[in-house]
């Protein structure tokens, strides 16, 4: 293991938070911000798809560098990285669809194949895909590569379902929420926890995107008409509040453990 390669360096603590209700809430909110935030920068600010992608990739590289530098889970760095991965994943799919005019059917298949390849290589090298064991740099790099492609795949599959297949935003939210609920039920029945986690993780992307579009898009297109800026700010505010609360709880628990 990489963590044991240098005996002078202490091993990494798990770099991924516990999978709780708050984890899933922040994950869904971050995917919504990825959808609405990317649309706001590219369309309403007028940056365009390519400049927005380059700017967000730059921010993501910085955030990922901070994440990799830490030796344990730091809530604000981890979730900042997730939000930026969400934006970049959205922009990758939008670039392929809008600029290169690649079919959503094709991009969905390609991203699914790429994600499957990452999982296959990850498992072949590490013999586990569990997020409870992200304790080496190599596993962490596999993890973030998988996360990026779950966002790209989720964006393509979500757009395919809501646009190309005509589900629409409202029905899209219902369908993806029901699918996630079915996966949660399967998990409680004893289905493999790693498999159910990653399936749910992928599906939260189209759920968040459909929710973001439902709230931000014009009523003429079946949305609530709140606009991308208000939707993004509202969801970012909730994310910041939840991350602050998680950080506070973590520090309080650590302090209590030290006292004991």
UniProtKB/TrEMBL annotation:
One Pfam family matching this protein: DUF347
InterPro entries, alphabetized:
DUF347
Q: Does the keyword Isomerase apply?
A: no
Q: Which UniProt keywords apply?
A: Membrane, Transmembrane, Transmembrane helix
**What name does the UniProt record give this protein?**
Uncharacterized membrane-anchored protein
Where is the chain membrane-spanning?
A: 12-29, 41-64, 76-96, 102-125, 141-161, 167-187, 194-215, 227-248
- In terms of superkingdom, the source organism counts as Bacteria
